[in-house]
Design a protein that fits this description.
It is built from 6 helices and 7 strands; from the N terminus they run ααβαβαββαβαββ. The protein starts with 9 loop residues before the first helix and ends with a strand. The protein has a 7-stranded mixed sheet with strand order 3-2-1-4-5-7-6.
Protein backbone atom coordinates (compact mmCIF):
# COMPACT_ATOMS: atom_id res chain seq x y z
CA UNK A 1 0.00 0.00 0.00
CA UNK A 2 1.34 3.41 -0.91
CA UNK A 3 1.15 6.47 1.31
CA UNK A 4 -1.62 7.95 -0.84
CA UNK A 5 -3.97 4.96 -0.68
CA UNK A 6 -6.84 5.32 1.77
CA UNK A 7 -7.54 2.67 4.39
CA UNK A 8 -10.87 4.19 5.35
CA UNK A 9 -13.03 2.70 2.61
CA UNK A 10 -14.52 -0.55 1.37
CA UNK A 11 -11.85 -1.02 -1.32
CA UNK A 12 -9.36 -1.62 1.49
CA UNK A 13 -11.56 -3.41 4.06
CA UNK A 14 -13.88 -5.60 1.97
CA UNK A 15 -11.18 -8.04 0.76
CA UNK A 16 -9.88 -8.42 4.33
CA UNK A 17 -13.31 -9.29 5.74
CA UNK A 18 -14.14 -11.49 2.72
CA UNK A 19 -11.00 -13.58 3.26
CA UNK A 20 -12.04 -14.18 6.88
CA UNK A 21 -9.68 -11.80 8.70
CA UNK A 22 -10.54 -11.55 12.40
CA UNK A 23 -9.92 -8.53 14.61
CA UNK A 24 -9.49 -8.05 18.34
CA UNK A 25 -12.77 -8.47 20.20
CA UNK A 26 -13.64 -6.45 23.33
CA UNK A 27 -12.48 -8.05 26.58
CA UNK A 28 -14.48 -8.03 29.83
CA UNK A 29 -12.49 -5.10 31.25
CA UNK A 30 -13.22 -3.03 28.16
CA UNK A 31 -16.95 -3.76 28.10
CA UNK A 32 -17.27 -3.10 31.85
CA UNK A 33 -15.53 0.25 31.42
CA UNK A 34 -17.76 1.12 28.47
CA UNK A 35 -20.90 0.08 30.37
CA UNK A 36 -20.02 2.45 33.22
CA UNK A 37 -19.52 5.39 30.84
CA UNK A 38 -22.56 4.75 28.62
CA UNK A 39 -25.09 3.61 31.21
CA UNK A 40 -28.47 2.02 30.45
CA UNK A 41 -29.93 2.74 27.04
CA UNK A 42 -33.69 2.77 27.72
CA UNK A 43 -34.22 2.22 23.96
CA UNK A 44 -32.43 5.44 23.00
CA UNK A 45 -30.63 5.30 19.63
CA UNK A 46 -26.96 4.29 19.43
CA UNK A 47 -24.63 4.11 16.44
CA UNK A 48 -21.60 1.83 16.14
CA UNK A 49 -19.18 3.13 13.49
CA UNK A 50 -17.08 0.45 11.79
CA UNK A 51 -19.02 -2.32 13.49
CA UNK A 52 -17.28 -5.23 11.75
CA UNK A 53 -18.94 -8.49 12.85
CA UNK A 54 -21.04 -6.54 15.35
CA UNK A 55 -19.81 -7.79 18.73
CA UNK A 56 -19.84 -4.31 20.26
CA UNK A 57 -23.07 -3.39 18.45
CA UNK A 58 -24.87 -6.40 19.91
CA UNK A 59 -23.51 -5.68 23.40
CA UNK A 60 -24.76 -2.08 23.33
CA UNK A 61 -28.12 -3.26 21.96
CA UNK A 62 -28.83 -6.38 24.03
CA UNK A 63 -26.89 -5.77 27.26
CA UNK A 64 -27.21 -1.99 27.66
CA UNK A 65 -30.64 -1.64 26.06
CA UNK A 66 -29.95 0.91 23.33
CA UNK A 67 -31.71 0.74 19.95
CA UNK A 68 -28.49 0.20 18.04
CA UNK A 69 -27.45 0.55 14.41
CA UNK A 70 -24.13 -0.90 13.29
CA UNK A 71 -22.54 0.60 10.21
CA UNK A 72 -19.57 -0.59 8.19
CA UNK A 73 -18.27 0.08 4.69
CA UNK A 74 -17.53 -3.64 4.08
CA UNK A 75 -20.50 -5.76 2.96
CA UNK A 76 -18.80 -9.00 4.09
CA UNK A 77 -18.46 -7.67 7.64
CA UNK A 78 -22.15 -6.75 7.75
CA UNK A 79 -23.15 -10.15 6.35
CA UNK A 80 -21.19 -11.81 9.17
CA UNK A 81 -22.72 -9.45 11.74
CA UNK A 82 -26.26 -10.27 10.62
CA UNK A 83 -25.70 -14.03 10.97
CA UNK A 84 -25.18 -13.69 14.75
CA UNK A 85 -28.67 -12.32 15.44
CA UNK A 86 -30.74 -15.48 15.17
CA UNK A 87 -32.46 -15.46 18.55
CA UNK A 88 -35.90 -14.16 19.47
CA UNK A 89 -36.54 -10.44 19.67
CA UNK A 90 -35.25 -7.62 17.59
CA UNK A 91 -31.54 -7.23 17.09
CA UNK A 92 -29.50 -4.27 15.94
CA UNK A 93 -30.03 -2.71 12.53
CA UNK A 94 -27.16 -3.18 10.07
CA UNK A 95 -26.33 -0.63 7.37
CA UNK A 96 -23.64 -0.43 4.73
CA UNK A 97 -22.38 3.11 5.07
CA UNK A 98 -19.04 4.86 4.81
CA UNK A 99 -19.12 7.39 7.66
CA UNK A 100 -16.51 9.54 5.92
CA UNK A 101 -18.31 10.05 2.60
CA UNK A 102 -21.89 8.75 2.50
CA UNK A 103 -25.04 10.78 3.08
CA UNK A 104 -25.81 10.68 6.81
CA UNK A 105 -29.53 11.06 6.17
CA UNK A 106 -29.46 7.38 5.16
CA UNK A 107 -29.13 6.53 8.86
CA UNK A 108 -32.34 5.50 10.66
CA UNK A 109 -32.09 8.29 13.27
CA UNK A 110 -31.13 11.97 12.95
CA UNK A 111 -29.24 11.95 16.28
CA UNK A 112 -27.76 9.36 18.64
CA UNK A 113 -27.45 9.23 22.43
CA UNK A 114 -24.31 7.12 22.01
CA UNK A 115 -21.86 6.79 19.14
CA UNK A 116 -19.17 4.14 19.43
CA UNK A 117 -16.02 3.90 17.36
CA UNK A 118 -13.82 0.93 18.25
CA UNK A 119 -10.46 0.47 16.52
CA UNK A 120 -11.55 2.75 13.66
CA UNK A 121 -10.33 6.27 14.46
CA UNK A 122 -6.71 5.46 13.59
CA UNK A 123 -7.75 4.51 10.04
CA UNK A 124 -9.67 7.71 9.28
CA UNK A 125 -7.81 9.87 6.75
CA UNK A 126 -9.55 13.21 7.39
CA UNK A 127 -9.93 13.16 11.15
CA UNK A 128 -11.29 16.75 11.53
CA UNK A 129 -14.08 16.05 9.01
CA UNK A 130 -14.86 12.74 10.70
CA UNK A 131 -15.11 14.35 14.14
CA UNK A 132 -17.37 17.06 12.71
CA UNK A 133 -19.67 14.38 11.26
CA UNK A 134 -19.82 12.63 14.63
CA UNK A 135 -20.63 15.91 16.41
CA UNK A 136 -23.45 16.48 13.91
CA UNK A 137 -24.94 13.06 14.76
CA UNK A 138 -24.45 13.12 18.54
CA UNK A 139 -27.49 14.18 20.55
CA UNK A 140 -27.07 16.87 23.23
CA UNK A 141 -25.76 15.19 26.37
CA UNK A 142 -24.69 12.13 24.38
CA UNK A 143 -21.45 10.20 24.56
CA UNK A 144 -18.90 9.52 21.85
CA UNK A 145 -17.07 6.35 22.94
CA UNK A 146 -13.75 5.77 21.15
CA UNK A 147 -11.40 2.85 21.65
CA UNK A 148 -8.09 3.07 19.83
CA UNK A 149 -4.61 1.70 20.03
CA UNK A 150 -1.94 4.15 21.12
CA UNK A 151 1.19 4.33 18.96
CA UNK A 152 4.32 2.80 20.43
CA UNK A 153 2.60 0.73 23.11
CA UNK A 154 3.09 -2.69 21.58
CA UNK A 155 6.08 -4.55 22.94
CA UNK A 156 7.70 -5.65 19.72
CA UNK A 157 10.81 -4.94 17.74
CA UNK A 158 8.83 -5.04 14.50
CA UNK A 159 8.39 -1.35 13.50
CA UNK A 160 5.34 -2.18 11.36
CA UNK A 161 3.47 -3.38 14.44
CA UNK A 162 4.26 -0.15 16.30
CA UNK A 163 2.30 1.90 13.74
CA UNK A 164 -1.35 0.91 14.29
CA UNK A 165 -1.97 3.38 17.09
CA UNK A 166 -2.79 7.04 17.13
CA UNK A 167 -0.16 9.68 17.76
CA UNK A 168 -0.31 12.35 20.48
CA UNK A 169 -1.38 14.85 17.79
CA UNK A 170 -4.25 12.54 16.72
CA UNK A 171 -5.31 12.18 20.36
CA UNK A 172 -5.22 15.95 20.87
CA UNK A 173 -7.38 16.46 17.79
CA UNK A 174 -9.84 13.82 19.00
CA UNK A 175 -10.26 15.35 22.47
CA UNK A 176 -10.35 19.05 21.55
CA UNK A 177 -13.61 20.94 21.97
CA UNK A 178 -15.56 18.51 24.16
CA UNK A 179 -17.05 19.66 27.46
CA UNK A 180 -16.03 16.42 29.19
CA UNK A 181 -13.18 14.05 28.31
CA UNK A 182 -12.59 10.84 30.27
CA UNK A 183 -9.86 8.38 29.37
CA UNK A 184 -8.76 4.97 30.60
CA UNK A 185 -5.94 2.76 29.43
CA UNK A 186 -6.17 -0.97 28.81
CA UNK A 187 -2.85 -2.52 27.71
CA UNK A 188 -2.18 -1.05 24.24
CA UNK A 189 -5.62 0.55 24.03
CA UNK A 190 -6.98 3.86 25.26
CA UNK A 191 -10.71 4.37 25.79
CA UNK A 192 -12.25 7.84 25.47
CA UNK A 193 -15.66 8.96 26.69
CA UNK A 194 -16.30 12.34 25.03
CA UNK A 195 -19.31 14.56 25.70
CA UNK A 196 -20.40 17.74 23.91
Amino acid sequence: MTATESTANSVYWEPLWAEGRQYRQPCDAETQLMDRHLGPGHSRPALDIGCGVGTLTRHVHHKLGYRTTGIDCAPSALALAATHDTGPGSGPAWRRLDITTDDLTALPDPAYAVITCRLVYRWIDDKPAFIERVRHLLAPGGTFWVVTEVAGRRTTTNPTLQEPGITPADAELLTAGWSAVRTADLDVLRCYALRP
